Hints:
Elements: E1 3-12, E2 18-19, H1 20-25, H2 32-39, E3 43-44, H3 53-68, E4 77-81, H4 92-100, E5 107-111, H5 117-131, E6 136-144, H6 154-157, E7 162-172, E8 177-184, E9 192-193, E10 196-199, E11 202-205, E12 210-211, H7 213-235, E13 244-247, H8 252-262, H9 273-276, H10 283-293, E14 302-309, E15 313-320
Parallel strand pairs: 4-5, 4-6, 13-14
Antiparallel strand pairs: 1-7, 2-3, 6-7, 8-15, 9-12, 10-11, 14-15
The structure holds acetyl coenzyme *A.
Amino acid sequence: MIHSTIVGTGSYLPGEPVTNDDLVARGIETSDEWIVARTGIRARHFAAPGVTASELALVAARRAIEAAGCAVDDIDLVIVATSTPDYIFPSTATLVQAGLGIRNGGAAFDVQAVCCGFVYGLAIAEKFIASGSHRRALVIGAEVFSRILDWADRGTCVLFGDGAGAVVLEASSTPGVRATALHADGRHNAILCVPGNVAAGKVTGDPFLRMDGQAVFKFAVKVLGDVAQEVIALAGVPQASIDWLVPHQANIRIIQSTARRLGLPMDKVVTTVDRHGNTSAASVPIALDCAVRAGQIRAGQRIVIEGVGGGFTWGAALIDF
Ligand code: ACO
């Protein structure tokens, strides 16, 4: 059996942090106190006008490749998870492939599973590698959510930020990714969506993010607890052997509730949401990279990553690092 293991991580947050007080100074009717108490978010980063998801992805990808110590042409699969692609097409993944100078004709495509996109991408890459068709995948989450925020909707615009995170996943003889679980339930698509499109040269529908915050909160806490338990059971390992949980970084209260459901103390949970807000598909690989570079997650440790996003989609992976 061909296993796969993470051999490098990288991430990138553009520009300077924008604090909650900075948002107030920009005219948003909110307060640091409200945002911190409800979400744990203290700052986020926004890409400069004109900077695209593929540009953020490229920086994170180069850092992950450098950490992996491989050549760009060793990568035969590029998967970019994003809901804010540069274009309708070509895919952001092909732009990243070209930007990195990969010329080996490997596969490149985008995955659209919103905030769970990176977990979907990693699970897909693991299956490609297990099949023997590919040997080394670059899996990226990259978003410029600032482009789809309605700045007049204070219930959503304070929650999100821009950024990118990446991993290099490589074929190995010993298990790294031990179990994955992916789910979706399209009946809940209206509680978190951007219900617009471009047709006949015009935006049709609504091009901004809309959310029923309380419905999302309840749904997220339930499925994140369930899916973490599911991958632990699938991997057949004791829950006590988990060194770190790396959850989707949307809201500290969702993260705390999930940890409580799993009986995990918060000192085993990676939290970076305070520094960058919700970066959707980028949030899990950014958190993972921050924890690796801070020396929290180390070789030989066992982690669970998990995400939940619009659609609704949710999933997790149990990984020996
Ligand atoms: N600043 C100040 N006041 C605000 C703000 C703001 N930014 N936004 C809303 N309010 C006000 C509302 O107007 C309302 O005022 P009112 O009582 O006078 O009418 C009051 O705060 C309460 O509003 P609610 O929407 O009920 O606030 P709630 O306690 O539900 O918190 C929040 C909202 C933070 C969005 C919460 O529902 C939540 O955390 N939901 C999860 C959503 C989430 O994390 N989404 C991320 C994307 S989903 C994902 O990644 C899977």
